[in-house]
Specification:
By secondary structure, the protein is an alpha/beta fold. The chain has six helices and eight strands. It has a six-stranded mixed beta sheet, sandwiched between helices. The structure holds guanosine-5'-diphosphate and magnesium ion.
C-alpha cells in the first residue's frame, strides 16, 4: 500500500514561508559610480531610460515581482558607488540585505577590475560575526546572494570587457552573471533577468537555511 506524505519533504527546497506570508527580500545595488546602477533600477521598476546622469546618494525602492505564480516583496537599495563611502556605511548596507547586484559596465575595464574589491568587501562584511541580519547563527555565517551584472551591453562598439570574461569572473567568485542594457526595451535586454536571478538565489538560500534548522532539531 502506498503512503502519502503530508507536509513538505526536508529534501525539497521550498521558499521558507511559515505562515503563508508574502516573502520579503532586500537587495542592494553596488558597483562603481556611473556604471549604470540607477538606470538598471529605473528600467526594471518603471520601464524607462534616461541619458541624463544624476549621482545617487542612497535611494530605496520597492517592487512586487511574481515568482512561481506568487507575489513577493523586493526592497531595493540603489547606492551611489562613491569611493568615499565609509567602510562602516558599506558594511551596514551589506549586512542589512539578503542579496546584491554587483554592477560593472562592459564598456569600462576599471570598474570590472574593481568588482573584485567590491566582492572582498561583501565577504568581509557578511562574515563579521555577531552582526548578521536577524542575529541567528546561521544568518551570521551566510553569504548574501550575488549576481554580477555587466551593464551597457548595447554599446557594442565601446565594449572593453567580453561576456566570457564576465562569466569567468562570476564563476571564480561563485556568483551568477547577467549582461544587459538599461537603454534597450525589455525583451532584448534582460534587465529583469538580473533581478529575477538574485530573487531566485535568495529564495534558495532561505529554503536551505530553513532546512538546516529543521535538520538540527
Ligand atoms: N547606452 C547606455 N547608457 C547607459 C546604460 N546604463 C546607464 N547608462 C548611462 O550611464 C550614465 C550613468 O548611469 P547611472 O545609472 O546614473 O549610473 P550609476 O552611477 O551607476 O547609478 C547615465 O548617463 C546613463 O544614461 C545602458 O545600459 N546603456
Ligand atoms: Mg546612481
Amino acid at each position: 500500500m502506498s503512503s502519502t506524505k503530508s507536509g513538505p519533504s526536508l529534501l525539497t527546497l521550498q521558499p521558507y514561508n511559515p505562515k503563508g506570508k508574502r516573502e520579503t527580500y532586500r537587495i542592494a545595488i553596488l558597483g562603481d559610480e556611473g556604471v549604470g546602477k540607477t538606470a538598471l533600477v529605473q528600467r526594471y521598476l518603471n520601464g524607462v531610460f534616461s541619458e541624463t546622469y544624476n549621482p545617487t546618494m542612497e535611494d530605496w525602492h520597492i517592487s512586487h515581482p511574481v515568482m512561481d505564480g506568487r507575489i513577493c516583496t523586493l526592497e531595493i537599495l540603489d547606492t551611489g558607488g562613491n569611493e568615499a563611502y565609509s567602510t562602516p556605511l558599506l558594511e551596514s548596507w551589506i549586512r542589512s540585505v539578503d542579496g546584491l547586484l554587483l554592477v560593472y559596465s562592459v564598456t569600462r575595464r576599471l570598474p570590472f577590475t574593481k568588482t573584485r574589491t567590491w566582492h572582498r568587501a561583501i565577504l568581509q562584511a557578511s562574515s563579521a560575526s555577531g552582526r548578521g541580519r536577524g542575529g541567528g547563527a546561521e544568518v551570521m555565517m551566510r553569504r548574501p546572494a550575488v549576481v554580477l551584472v555587466g551593464s551597457r551591453a548595447d554599446r557594442v562598439w565601446e565594449r572593453e570587457v567580453s561576456a566570457e570574461e564576465g562569466r569567468a569572473l562570476a564563476r571564480a567568485l561563485e556568483m551568477k552573471h547577467v549582461e544587459c542594457s538599461a537603454a534597450i526595451q525589455e525583451g532584448h535586454a534582460p534587465v529583469a533577468d538580473a533581478f529575477r536571478a538574485v530573487v531566485r538565489m535568495m529564495q534558495q538560500q532561505r529554503a536551505e537555511a530553513h532546512r538546516a534548522r529543521l535538520l538540527r532539531y
